[in-house]
């Protein structure tokens, strides 16, 4: 049976394997690459065995291997370890996190700068972000045409100018950068965020000097008290 090809959101390109994910350039409007995967293993059991730790609990191989799991749970552990090695072999520094909760900004913040806000990652040099959600709600992205920077909204910019020195110049731009205000976005009216899905390995564009594509705007999923932890690989 032949399956219909996946239809990529604007700005996203699907690839067939890790070699393509690694080698495909981010250019010509493509600011996110996705290797869709259906992974074997019981990731829910792994998350259950890790629940109750730090808000963001970074895991190592020894801790994963020490979990008391069923055969399907051990298959999941081997996949997690394999993905860590896959990225480390490319001189990356991945972290596998069990996320029980993220800190949130105050509700009355002029611009929320926590990970629940649509945002872009930044770097001082050419670098991409790698992401995979194995369990729990996955991250969400916005196509470049659907995102607008918070600091480019007239009312928000005016309020930030009032909060800083009142002059829209280099000092104001430094103020925005120091507070990460320039990295946060809103979805345009009618925009539909796309899901990063479970098991898929992503490579997304960051905001760095000279990048030829806009950064990939994304956010962590909303969570509620009592939700199970997420298993997330990030580099």
Features:
12 strands; 235 residues; alpha+beta
What does this structure look like?
By secondary structure, this protein is of the alpha+beta class. The protein is built from six helices and twelve strands. The protein has helices at residues 18-23, 43-50, 61-65, 71-88, 154-163, 170-178; strands spanning 12-14, 32-35, 56-59, 95-99, 128-135, 140-142, 147-149, 185-187, 194-195, 201-205, 217-219, 230-234. α1 links the parallel β1 (12-14) and β2 (32-35). The mean pLDDT is 90.
Average predicted local confidence, pLDDT: 90
The percentage helix is: 10-25%
N- to C-terminal distance? 36 Å
Q: How much β-strand is present in the residues? A: 15-25%
Layout of helices and strands:
Layout: E1 12-14, H1 18-23, E2 32-35, H2 43-50, E3 56-59, H3 61-65, H4 71-88, E4 95-99, E5 128-135, E6 140-142, E7 147-149, H5 154-163, H6 170-178, E8 185-187, E9 194-195, E10 201-205, E11 217-219, E12 230-234
Parallel strand pairs: 1-2
Antiparallel strand pairs: 2-10, 3-4, 4-12, 5-10, 5-12, 6-9, 6-11, 7-8
Helix pairs in contact: 2-4
Short description:
The protein is of the alpha+beta class and 235 residues long. It has helices at residues 18-23, 43-50, 61-65, 71-88, 154-163, 170-178; strands spanning 12-14, 32-35, 56-59, 95-99, 128-135, 140-142, 147-149, 185-187, 194-195, 201-205, 217-219, 230-234.
């Amino acid at each position: 049976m032949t399956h219909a090809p996946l239809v990529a959101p604007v700005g996203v390109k699907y690839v067939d394997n890790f070699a393509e994910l690694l080698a495909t350039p981010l250019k010509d409007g493509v600011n996110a690459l996705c290797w869709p995967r259906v992974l074997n293993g019981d990731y829910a059991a792994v998350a259950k065995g890790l629940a109750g730790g730090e808000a963001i609990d970074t895991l190592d191989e020894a801790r994963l291997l020490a979990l008391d799991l069923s055969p399907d749970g051990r298959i999941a552990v081997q996949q997690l370890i394999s993905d860590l090695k896959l990225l480390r072999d490319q001189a990356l520094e991945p972290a596998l996190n069990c996320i029980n909760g993220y800190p949130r900004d105050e509700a009355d913040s002029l611009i929320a700068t926590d990970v629940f806000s649509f945002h872009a990652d930044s770097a001082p040099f050419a670098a991409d972000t790698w992401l995979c959600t194995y369990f729990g709600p996955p991250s969400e992205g916005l196509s470049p045409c659907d995102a607008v920077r918070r600091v480019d909204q007239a009312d928000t910019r005016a309020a930030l100018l009032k909060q800083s020195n009142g002059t829209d110049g280099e000092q104001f731009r430094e103020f925005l950068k120091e507070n990460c205000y320039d990295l946060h976005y809103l979805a345009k009216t009618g925009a539909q965020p796309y899901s990063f899905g479970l098991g898929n390995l992503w490579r997304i564009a960051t905001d760095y000097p000279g990048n030829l594509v806009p950064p990939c705007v994304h956010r962590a999923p909303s969570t509620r008290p009592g939700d199970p932890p997420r298993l997330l690989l990030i580099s």
